[in-house]
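This follows on from our talk about sequence and fold. Can you supply me with one protein entry, sequence and fold together? Could you add the entry underneath, on a fresh line?
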Amino acid sequence: MEEEHRQFIASRTDELIQLDLHYPLPDISRIPFNLIPKQKPIWIVVHTFKKEEVESLLHYAEEVAALQNISPFFVVLSDQAIEVRNGICFSYFPAMDWFPLADRIFAGAGFNIAQQIKPFLSKTTLIPFPRLYDDQVWRAATIVKPM
């Protein structure tokens, strides 16, 4: 969090405790390799909660592929079932198992994914979505370029 925000919270509480979450490491041994072709780039789209947002991320990834003249295999990891023309969509947890295999990753900028994606930022596109109590635009900007 930004210093001004930390000071605001600290001025209104008796104790401020740093939260340090430990996410499991990716484990590619759990990946169902029989579902993905061997000779195509793997582009991961990972998002949950709102079907329209998952579709939006996939459409953006498809547009990027078309602009770059690439024909990837899309793996959409979501709790929302959507149609994927050149790939698959299924519910898979934890999504980070796929990150080492991905050539590109497209995701929202929610808190958990922003933490889990840090080792893979060079191949990640974070797209923030509007939330009432979560500033994903700020998070996406600071995760890529920490303040």
The chain has four helices and five strands. The chain has a mean pLDDT of 92.
